[in-house]
Structure prediction request, 68 residues.
Amino acid sequence: GRPPGDFPKGVDPLSVVLDGDAIPLRKRDGSIPKPLAQVIDRALAKKVKDRYQDADEFKRALAACVGA
Prediction:
């Protein structure tokens, strides 16, 4: 229920997205299972090379961490 970054009042949200990193999911909600949080955090990585390279790779990672 929260965005992946903090958007301080008076700061351009676009600059926050472009210049900042996403807050690790478990820092937002420690009850989220670590494997799931790792998948989501990777999907939100700043560098393209660090993210999933396509939707199928992302789907497989999600399925693996939830046991589907």
Notes: The radius of gyration is 13 Å.
